[in-house]
Design brief:
The chain is mainly beta and 304 residues long. The protein contains three helices and 20 strands.
Length: 304
């Protein structure tokens, strides 16, 4: 069994957060390096039940996600992922014979929750996932669903968070006790209100209109991608690109989950107009999109 728009900008705070974001390898929303915008996940929150070991959390889990990144060119938007989970997914006794990647969702609407997002975009890039659309590609007018149940997944994000942190109630001290896990969604806190915490969080497309193709990328040697700068050591790095002109401009939040919800990541970003490629200084405000919401990100548990 596996255990598996726009919100208002706060200009003054944007300059402060943007300045902080580019000063250190510890990634925050809008962390820039070599022309890429990175969202670095916790390295201690991938979960997997392994025979003879029980629950494994962290780098030894096949579902440990390390980070995702985004880069713009004049005509493309490129996404890259560093993870222990490869593009082909994880072989398992579930529907389709594997637990795969969910679809990547792009929310430009500025809605305070993913469930209330309108005009949602998504990218299906994993051939063997349980998406409700037949072809790989970029989709608009997207509706969503969860396939965690048929992939031996977590019952909720709240349950996932508790299992990662080994959260339990200490009757003697009258307080919660946490283990060594550190649940995170990269640019979002693990307990963010943006995603549904109490039910099976939707992780694939249910329906949508295909508006473009997706190009898979395995060689980033000439693109300046550098997950190693942040200490991300996932066994797989892969990515994909879509036509920039098919997406809205402005700020967005992207997120992705494994089909079993064993780990997930979010990235806060911005897409410039179709004819420009932003310089790093032009992205200094990233991370303020939904300041109150994303201020929750990467909250650390205090251990009793």
């Amino acid at each position: 069994m596996f255990i598996p728009q726009r919100l208002s900008w706060f200009t003054g705070a944007a300059l402060v957060l943007g300045t902080v974001a580019i000063t250190a390898p510890n990634a925050t929303a809008g962390t820039l390096h070599n022309g890429w915008n990175y969202g670095i996940d916790s390295f201690k929150d991938g979960t997997e039940y392994q025979s003879g070991r029980g629950l494994v959390v962290g780098s030894e889990s096949a579902f440990e996600f390390y980070g995702m990144a985004m880069k713009e060119t004049e005509d493309s938007v490129i996404f890259a992922i560093n993870s222990n989970l490869g593009l082909s997914g994880y072989s398992a006794s579930v529907r389709g014979g594997s637990i795969a990647w969910g679809d990547l969702f792009l929310n430009f609407s500025g809605s305070s929750t993913f469930d209330s997002a309108t005009d949602l975009f998504a990218i299906r890039f994993a051939e063997n996932n349980d998406s409700g659309v037949a072809e790989l590609g970029l989709y608009s007018n997207v509706t969503t669903k969860s396939v965690a149940g048929v992939n031996s997944g977590h019952s909720s994000l709240s349950s996932y968070n508790n299992k990662v942190s080994n959260k339990s109630w200490n009757k003697d001290s009258g307080s919660w006790v946490y283990g060594d896990g550190d649940p995170s969604l990269a640019d979002l806190a693990s307990d963010t209100s943006y995603l549904n915490q109490s039910g099976r969080t939707h992780n694939v497309i249910k329906s949508g209109t295909k508006i473009g193709d997706v190009q898979l990328i395995s060689d980033f040697s000439n693109l300046g991608l550098d997950f190693g700068y942040f200490g991300a050591t996932g066994t797989n790095t892969f990515g994909f690109s879509v036509d920039k002109s098919l997406l809205p401009t402005g700020d967005f939040i992207a997120h992705i989950l494994a089909e079993c919800n064993n780990d997930g990541m979010a990235l806060i970003g911005e897409i410039s107009d179709a004819e420009s490629v932003p310089e790093p200084a032009g992205l200094v405000g990233l991370g303020v999109f939904g300041l109150g919401l994303w201020g929750q990100r990467r909250r650390k548990h205090q251990k009793a």
